Amino acid sequence: MNASARILEETYLPRPEKMAPDSHTVRRKSKKLSKTKFPSLVFILVLGYLAVSFGAQFSKLTTMQKDVLSIQQEVEELKQRNMALRQELQAVQTDAYVEKTAREKLGLVKQGETRVLTVAPGTELQQLEVPSGPTPAAD
C-alpha cells in the first residue's frame, strides 16, 4: 500500500480499539453461576420443595381428621342402634309378647276362650261350616 492509501484508510476506517459498542466485538455475558449465588439457589430450591411437601402432607392430615370424625359419628350411631335392637330382642323373648303376637297375627285363642270378630256394617258374610267330628281331647 502506498502512503496516500494508508492515510485514507486510517482516517475513514475505524480502528478495532475505537469500534462502536454494538459491533461484533461486544463481550458476551457469562452464564456461569458465581460461587456466592449457587448456595443461595440450592437453598431456595430446597425451601420450595419443603413448602410444597408440607402443604401436601397438611392436606392429607386434614382429610384424615375429617374421616376419623365421620367414622366416630358412625360408630356412635351404630352403638345406639345396637342398644335399641338388644332392648327389642329382650321384649320379643317375653311370654307376654309371644302371647300377644299369637293372638293378633295368628288368630290363636287360649283353651276355653271364644274368638269374637267384629265385622263392618254392610259386609256380606259367608256361611261358615262347623267342623263335624270328634273334638280334640285336652291333655
From TrEMBL:
User: Where is the signal peptide, in residue numbers?
Assistant: none
Q: Where are the transmembrane segments?
A: 38-56
Q: Does the keyword Membrane apply?
A: yes
Keywords from UniProt, A to Z, are: Cell cycle, Cell division, Cell membrane, Coiled coil, Membrane, Transmembrane, Transmembrane helix
One of the protein's GO biological processes = protein ubiquitination
Q: Which InterPro entries match?
A: Cell_div_FtsB, FtsL/DivIC
* Coiled-coil intervals: 61-95
One cellular component (GO) term of this entry: ubiquitin ligase complex
What protein name does the entry list? Cell division protein FtsB
Query: Which organism does this sequence originate in?
Result: Pelotomaculum schinkii
Print the organism lineage: Bacteria, Bacillati, Bacillota, Clostridia, Eubacteriales
